[in-house]
Hints:
Oligomer: single chain
Number of helices: 3
Shape: globular
Strand order of the largest sheet: 2-1-5-6-7-4-3
Number of domains: 1
Largest sheet: 7 strands, antiparallel
Structural class: alpha+beta
Radius of gyration: 14 Å
Order of helices and strands: HEEEEHEEHE
Distance between the termini: 10 Å
CATH class: Mainly Beta
CATH architecture: Roll
Helix content: 25-40%
Amino acid sequence: MKSDEVEFLEGGNYISFATRKRSGEFVATPVWFAPFEGSYYLFSAGEAGKVKRLRNFSQSRIAACTMRGAVTGDWMDSEAELLESNADKDIALQSLRKKYGLQMKIGDVFANISGKMAKRAYIKVSRA
């Protein structure tokens, strides 16, 4: 990625994260993301469609977007992986907490109360 693309992407609160279906079609979803050491980390409900699709295909695309998912930048090819180790999940969570601060902490409190925290999936996205 060019530095201006990275700055544009990282300057926002959302990216459109598109995962591939078996048909080859991509399904995009706006998500929070946080950069760390050249990759991006995000989270999702563990049973969400994007998580199921990632189990089949690591190929993905990302673009800057609005909260509602309207893409505001160019699509970039990427590879995504579901994080398995607690150490990797901690990196993702700490990166997200650093970027989103109080918003993330409040979300975590409600996720813990509802039992959804334990069911979260964490995803690492890297440039293809």
